[in-house]
Design goal:
- The protein contains 24 helices and 9 strands.
- It is α+β, with helices and mostly antiparallel strands.
Length: 670
Amino acid sequence: DGSLAIFSVIMVFSYIWVATGSGFLAVIGMSEIVLSIPLAWWVLRLIGVNYFGFLNMMSIFIVCAIGADDIFVFMDAYVQSQYKGVDVNRDLATRLSWVYRKSGIAMLITSTTTCAAFLCSLTTPIPGSQGFGIFAALVIAADYVLVMTLFCTAVMVYHNRFEKPPLCGFQIPTPIGPCQCGCCCENCSCAINNPTPTEKALAASHGNIEVPADGVELFFRTKFAPMILKPRNRVIIAVVVFVWMIPCIYFVFQLVPTEKQEQFLKDDHPIQKAISALNDKFPVSSTDRGIDVFYTWGLQDVDRNGANVLLNITYVGEPRYDPAFKFTPQCMAKLKEVCDGFQNNVTDEYLGLVQRNSKGGGSVKCVVYDLETRGTERNWDLTTEDKMKSHMDEFMKLRAVPESDDADSRDTVAKKYKEMMGWDGEQIKFVGIAIESKNLTLYNRPPEEITRANWKAYEELRNNVDFIAAEACGGNVQMTDLIGKFVFMNNQMIYRTSAIRGALIGIGIAFLVLLACTWSLLISVLSTISILCTMLSVIGLVTMIGWNLGTVQAILISILAGFSVDYVVHLAHAYAHSPLPTREERVVSAFSEMGAPVLSGMITSVLASLPLFACNLVFFSQFGTFLCFTILFSWLFANFAFMSALATIGPQGPPSAASNKVDDDSKMPA
């Protein structure tokens, strides 16, 4: 699966090469995309975040998609600048200044929105999701900085030395220009161009030289935009969107938490087939080793003050001991009564929760049994607390009493009960009992609903044993497991709730950013509706194809807004800042300015996601599916539904003071 990440990089690199027609720009562009990963990691360590989880590896696919989009936005502004007349093309510094400001603002808006959407993961308490959100946001920010510095510098070198007619190429229109090999140019020379491309553009503005037209830009300006402006077509688009959204909304509400064990590998993988057969065709039996559920006296909740796994992955808090706990002979007798209940009780409540051993009794690890047995063998006086303590050092070194299913065990008491006897040489800090779970085994990972039902049942047992031993032992009992089964159950609930919360916060952030960059409430509302339609379409479609809400799906939904904003933000910004007075002219202007780079961004994002479909790990393959669906729906809703809405009810009027200087579209080739 790791090699597929390299294949994704190669595919994006190839498309950048084809689209820009320059191998030099493709190498520099792909280099800055890849360099954004170590740069973000360096910043991550600089701010003190030491956590780097598995999810962070997804950032390479994210930056391939979004980084290429930034390159196309910059290059499209560079291509458009040659049509902007004398004021823009009087020299290279003036031209690149216009390109820098034009593309920089558009990229800053989308990068800010995307970063903010990823940072929504900070609302969840799970370090893995938090770390992924922070790292992904830093990667996007690093890519923006590198595009505006490294790639901008590369474009200057390209302008001066490599922007020449190709020695070989194919006249196939791409979103940036004709497809070229990008390696060889006329005379195979790297000498400074004379005249320079900017000087040619300046001459063209005077009518002395004809600048070749950009085929894809012409398509959006002369074909696609007029299609959107036809009232009949807008009605058809509205009907299609309405009809499509009905089943999507229905299936969104059909998305339910998974009721099956979540798997790491695809169904057709040999290892997954074996695991599925083991879990589905062979029910849990008495021979399956269940997890240990611990009931412990003497411990309180862990002190989490100062614990932050993002900053320090080794410090998770300090244990707190219950000062009221006393391991006295009376407490020992009550704990033995609790152990007897777990071992011998045959009521449905106990039989359904406690695994049975080979002799038919409950499978229990009870240090009190060992203490009583070894004390009787050695005639220890255990009638007072102090006398019990006097034998503890010797007791911990003795061989533990073997269980019926493990008669050959040679473990010492200290080794067998290291998690159930807190002897520090002076005090018995805590004492615990472990029962083997009947339904939760070491190897299965049931869905949250099943695990939570078992957890609630063990909590009821905790109330029973607390009633028996609380008074004699001087403290309340704590119930937990030590392999994280109940922690994962709680994480599943957090994933589910944080998915909805993260998506809603992402939409809210997108709305505020759009409002700030367009200064139009109407455009911001329409853009937000487009983003919402994208999210509902993706969630509805994955539900249609059989997905349930598991851990992977919850993480992907929580970051969905971050992938849904780019295209609609580009078009909204271009429309809002168009200097033209009518909505029809603004629609044409927005498509002319952003249609090509948005299309290229969509293509590279899809290309970056395609290798993930072949991954064996379920998370990777579902991430690829999710990314591909999100990109496609985002592009479709932005170009068809959103622009149709602007063409119908979008704001119009004389140029505002916030608009850019009037661009004379008559200077662009028709």
